[in-house]
Amino acid sequence: MSCTWSTRRAVKRLGSMMALMLALGGCDPGPLIGPGVVDAGAGQGGDELPDRPNSGVPPGPGVGPEPVRFADPPPIAGGNVAVDARAERAIVADADRRRVMIFDVSSQLAPNQWQGRAPIFSVPVPDLLPGRVVIDDATDRAYVALGVVDDAPGQSGQILVIDIANRLEVERRDTCADPRGLAIEGETLHVVCRGGKWLRFAADGAIRETVLETDLRDIVPRGDGRYWISRFRSAEILDVDSAGTVLGRVTLPSTDPELCARRPATAWRMVGDADGSVAVLHSLMMLEPFPGPAERPPNGYYRGAPIPEDVGCAFGPVVVATTFIGEDGGPADGRALDCARDCRLEIMRRGVLAVDIAGGPDGFTIAAPGSNGRTLVQGGGADDAELREADCRSNAGPIRWGQFVAVSAAADDVQVAWSREPPGLCRLSGASAEWIGVDVPPLDPVRNFGHELFHRDPVGGGRMGITCASCHPEGLDDGHVWRFPEFGARRTQSLVGGIRGTEPLHWGGELPSMRELTDQVMHVRMGRLQPLTDAEVGVLLDWLDGLPARRVDQVLRWSAVDRGRALFEDPAVGCATCHHEGDYRAGRAHDVGTGGSFQTPSLVGVGLRRPLMHDGCAETVAARFDPELLREDGTVCGGDAHGNLAGLDADDIRDLVEYVQSL
User: Fold this and answer.
1) pTM score, whole prediction
2) How many CB atoms lie within 10 A of CB 308?
3) Angle CA(416)–CA(417)–CA(421) in degrees, nearest 5?
4) Residue 69 near residue 483, CB atoms below 8 Å
5) Which residues contact residue 446 at a Cβ distance below 8 angstroms, ignoring those fewer than 6 apart?
6) What is the DSSP secondary-structure string of 453-465?
7) pLDDT value of position 389
8) Rounded to an integer, what distance in angstroms lies between the CA atom of residue 645 and that of residue 627?
9) By mean pLDDT, which of 34-38, 71-75, 636-640 is the weakest?
10) How far apart are CA 485 and CA 191, in angstroms?
11) In which element (H, E) is residue 554 found?
């Protein structure tokens, strides 16, 4: 099923938005970052989230005498709901409750009924992690990606196939460890995997496998024998033909450096239109240095609110954006894509941690679960130039406390969004937005204070414009290098694989404990009004420690891996001296000739982390071993101080790289 974007009408609408804002009361929209800047939350206030009626669930992070911990939910990923073309059935892949469900969304609840709509079909998947969903309307079948939870030996991810009309589980197809993007093209199901595999399942059961690059996210068939495939952390879009040849790479637009230089990162979601165009929901990361200590506000210098332009970027270090590619037919008419000509960048001033997007003739809806109580944002369309919050309504009033994490569009202008907690669906049609409360087994809430802290704006109302997950998507890293006057360049660190026991924290080891880290990052930098209590720090640390670091599921030259392991463990080479087997880190700082002593990071999953080193000086694992690779200041990035490579030839280095990438 394809979504109709009506992007040409959306251009006119969003392009006139700032003029409309000025006309309504003469308000000052603040400095612009680039074209199409819109505000989805300014002036809304920071009211606390109201309690869920009769649930006993505290209304929001930090409310109540003790931090809430009902469950250990996984990081938010988005893309886990799909609605059929008739807007009658919604498929929900509930990662929090490890269950795949079908709900009737064709009609609303009876009067005064707050919740109670049970799924018409439910499949528990206790040992796998539900992810992306796609519906084949021609066969009335749904396909759900199920990823592995950790590195359990012999476990594979799967594709769950459901017959929607007959409410049957048809089969499960083994895939890769971490299947991500799904797409239907005729009778073929496309699956792209985080480790780099591209699988094609034909109607006759034949499977075709192609190996591309790691960190794949979504796939959209273009209709001309070519495919758009997105990469998550780099926000790069690959133009790939049916043979698996990468014909081109689309670098999403950056912002005007004269206003505030930003680069694209973290492509949370890519969806397509029938004409071959796509919309990519992604982040834009600040390239300019943070203000120095003397120029900073007393707290919250990561804040989304404007700060003086002469000391840094307004709107904070991370903003949400959507890039529309080829909406004028560029990529579908055979021309080489030129993003300066064929791409359009729209920036949202608010809408924190946007992870999913869906469109229709009346515009688009974005799920932004980091915006406390304001997690659905709508825009686009022909007649209404206002970017608005979608207030789901029940007979009890607006549902402002749902945390919507996914949204999907049907063919008849209906969109359906999924709220993870409280569980429920929002049926959007034109200007109306109606809540469908659900009974989801098990009935226990999936609230976790650590999860809340990680994914929500720390102040409320989306006013800070940033969450922990903004820079650590799914607990990983954004691949971005930040610039601090007091530290210099620092690449975002991955948080998966456990933090407890790795103190001191941050690259330079300047924070001796999680207590100091939350005080410095969440209170001073992110603007949380009060420091966390010790109990709150403990719950956050417990949740983070539950995030597994998985090895990269990719095709490797295993004979080279074996040879590389022998070199890695050779005392003469010295890799294992600091990177001990297990998590492959030493837990202390080392000076490896890179300008000082820095904490030794884990190497598990390093094949997905780019760039590398504390300042991102090495773009790839192979580049890290280049003795001639220099930093901006002329100092060495690789070299013999970081392991003894003097006795290794080019073949040895290739084997060593292969082994490191297998970890």
Assistant:
1) 0.87
2) 10
3) 145
4) no
5) 70, 71, 73, 96, 97, 420, 421
6) HHHS-SSSTT-S-
7) 72
8) 9
9) 34-38
10) 43
11) none
